[in-house]
Design goal:
The protein is an alpha+beta fold. α10 packs antiparallel against α18, α11 packs parallel to α13 and α11 packs antiparallel against α17. Helix content is about 35%, strand content about 25%.
Length: about 700
């Protein structure tokens, strides 16, 4: 009996507990809904809905002449919410849509596409990517007219998700200067240094988490549209850049050198027209732009004999010497304390004038003169660094500029031999751009201007920021000294170590440099060779420096290695520069007289019409077509439709490279090109049916 009572008691206790728990459930539900409702609804929102960043379109980078150096081309990933379309719309359009997808992508049959979309709809999947291959803007517009897709995102469920790709029309041209930036916003060159302007401001949009962990965009009135990045306008000239890279690469390969740099700059303005940096690849095969030695800290090295120009400036400013006085160099060796200074020529130069000492680049002569006149006051000699503006970096527009280094008298690393060695470009460090600024100042009648690469930041036609010529020193030396330095630099090319590059067409002024490489605390038989100068010497427009590190072979000196590269680049610039070459000016003038209408061939109708309106040239009304060919009819411009939408190879003749690339690559055509300018000819005739993996060759001119 006691056992029975015990069992009944236990059952009653369990029953009471169950009843209490059952009663607590609605109370808990009520509390969650009423008291904690907002909290849990907010949590549900954050789990299934999120405002996520929508990347802005990155700004473009342009050369000084408007050539496009880097841009972001829009591509689209095609996705679908198969549950959005109404049953009648879906049933009537799915077969046609599947046929379109199969014909476009050519990777699955129409039946396979239909099965994929239908199965996803039955499984109530809210998001599927129809194909991983991204499509161009024009193809996206065509797809938007397909069945079901034409109802848009809300009616048909189609999602065209924008994906941008950074593209360089000129491939590797100026690649290190243009630079890059990675996902962590670390990089190099313009892309990195001006990232805050280029990247724009990301927007925000509401996304919904769907099956599989994917996120799909959901239209929301509170979406924040992204602001596109600013465009960066450089001072570079793509033609000069191409010439500089080509000439430098040829010499590096011929001499099997470690690396080389070239900078070309306008004398009056300080605008950099080209920066080339080529370094031997790690596998020892070929050269690439892996580091900016012209600007960066790794390019900060002992300049060698190009620094003798500074030594002569200090000597002439002190009125210590005249160019025609004699200096004894003996057999080419002179002892300073425990070190022997030597000339490159075996047996030395004997007794020569100071002018000849500079032209022949005598180490003994220059170091003896500096030690003789500044040995008791080396700080006075180095004080001229402040006078010419070479003590500190220029705060150049690209990140990573190397800082000049010079020993200071009285410090523990200053020795009795320091001044003589500094006077010929040792025991000090300069970047190529710092050395070039000094030579440019001599060419510019003593006015030192700051080298600059970026001239404007803008969005559309609105300028956000602008840079102009900045004068660092109004005069680095007296007018008399500057004239004498100009004479010395011209003499180097006429009679001295660079007479191999003397030119009958125009005069070059400059100085060779050859510095032994310091490795593990000892000077080796490897050399850092250079040539810095300007041209034409009688009316300087361009200054330039060429450095080539560790060339191999016979006569690995600045005059034999770097100077010929300088001449090759200068010759090609001179040949095409209208201001420098009278024959070119006459040719252009005769062409201008022969035509009353501007040189326009093809492009976007609206853009061309705006240009012609500003020029005051009459033109026929703008057609609704996006791309047109232009026909000059006496004194009026007429339009001819240029159909780029057909499933055939389009006609891109007369277009700029940028426009041609936009049209062709958005049609899935791979492009190879040669030359500069507008499209003269194309390897595939317009109207040729498009095939998979089509490749076209464009000739520009």
């Amino acid at each position: 009996m006691n056992i029975k009572r015990s069992i009944v008691l236990r059952v009653r206790v369990v029953f009471i507990l169950i009843a209490l728990a059952t009663a607590a459930i609605p109370l808990r539900i009520a509390k969650i809904q009423v008291e904690e409702g907002d909290k849990w609804r907010e949590k549900a929102q954050t789990i299934n809905f999120q405002y996520r960043e929508v990347p802005a379109t990155r700004g473009n980078i342009y050369a000084g002449d408007g050539s496009l150096l880097a841009t972001s081309l829009p591509f689209y990933r095609v996705a679908l919410d198969p549950t959005m379309a109404k049953k009648s719309l879906f049933d009537s359009g799915i077969d046609s849509l599947a046929n379109h997808l199969s014909a476009y992508y050519r990777d699955k049959s129409a039946k396979a596409y239909k099965r994929m979309i239908t199965d996803a709809r039955l499984e109530k999947k809210r998001y599927i990517v129809l194909n991983r291959r991204q499509v161009g803007y024009q193809d996206m517009q065509k797809m938007a007219e397909w069945p079901i897709f034409r109802e848009g995102r809300l009616g048909g469920g189609v999602l065209f998700e924008k994906v941008e790709k950074r593209y360089r029309p000129f491939n590797s041209l100026a690649s290190r200067t243009v630079g890059f930036v990675n996902e962590d916003e670390y990089g190099a060159g313009i892309e990195y240094s001006f990232n805050e302007y280029l990247k724009g401001r990301d927007g925000k949009a509401l996304f919904q988490r769907i099956a599989g962990g994917s996120w799909k965009p959901v239209f929301d009135a509170e979406d924040i549209k992204p602001e596109d990045g600013f465009d960066v306008i450089t001072t570079l000239d793509v033609n000069i850049q191409d010439v500089a890279e080509t000439a430098l690469l040829r010499q590096l390969e011929d001499r099997d050198a470690a690396f080389g740099s070239v900078i070309v700059m306008e004398v009056k303005t300080g605008k950099i027209k080209a920066i080339a940096n080529l370094q031997k690849n790690k596998n020892g095969r070929g050269y690439g732009e892996n580091y900016n030695f012209a600007i960066g800290d790794q390019g900060n090295t002992e300049p060698g004999s190009t620094f003798k120009l500074f030594s002569m400036l200090a000597l002439l400013e002190e009125n210590k010497v005249s160019l025609e006085e004699k200096i004894e160099t003996g057999n080419g060796a002179h002892r300073f304390y425990n070190q022997v200074m030597r000339d490159a020529k075996n047996g030395g130069y004997g007794t020569i004038t100071i002018r000849e000492a500079f032209e022949k680049s005598s180490n003994v002569a220059i170091s003896k003169l500096v030690d003789m006149h500044f040995g008791s006051s080396p700080s006075k000699f180095l004080g001229y660094l402040d006078q010419v503006g070479l003590r500190e970096p220029f705060d150049f527009q690209l990140a990573g500029e190397g800082k000049p280094f010079f020993k200071k008298p009285g410090e523990k690393d200053w020795y009795g031999t320091s001044l003589p060695w500094i006077s010929i470009g040792y025991e000090s460090k300069l970047n190529p751009i710092h050395t070039l600024a000094l030579y440019n100042a001599v060419a510019n009648e003593g006015k030192m201007v700051k080298p600059y690469l970026i001239q404007a930041i803008l969005r559309g036609n609105k300028i956000e920021k602008q840079w102009d010529t900045e004068v660092i020193r109004k005069k680095i030396a007296s007018e008399k000294t500057v004239k004498q330095l100009q004479e010395l630099l011209e003499g180097v090319v006429v009679r001295g170590t660079a007479k191999n590059i003397a030119n009958a067409e125009y005069a070059i002024a400059g100085k060779t440099g050859t510095a032994q490489k310091l490795e593990n605390g000892r000077y080796t038989k490897r050399y850092y060779t250079s040539f810095a100068g300007y041209f034409p010497a009688d009316r300087p427009k361009y200054s330039m420096i060429v450095v080539i590190d560790s060339p191999t072979g016979f006569a690995a000196y600045g005059g034999d290695v770097s100077a010929p590269v300088f001449k090759e680049i200068a010759d090609k610039i001179y040949a095409v520069d209208l201001e420098l070459n009278p024959s070119s000016q006459d040719l252009i003038a005769s062409e201008e007289k022969s035509s009353n209408t501007p040189f326009v061939k093809a492009g976007k109708a609206e853009e061309i019409h705006q240009i012609l309106e500003k020029l005051g040239v009459p033109s026929a009304p703008v057609q609704p077509e996006e791309w047109v060919k232009v026909v000059a009819n006496q004194n009026q411009i007429n339009w001819k439709t240029n159909d780029t939408d057909a499933a055939t190879v389009p006609d891109v003749s007369g277009l700029s490279l940028r426009d041609a690339l936009f049209i062709l690559e958005n049609k899935g055509i791979r492009v190879n090109y040669s030359g500069r300018g507008i499209v003269k000819s194309q390897s595939l005739n317009p109207g040729t049916p498009l095939e998979r993996n089509t490749i076209i060759k464009l000739e520009l001119g």
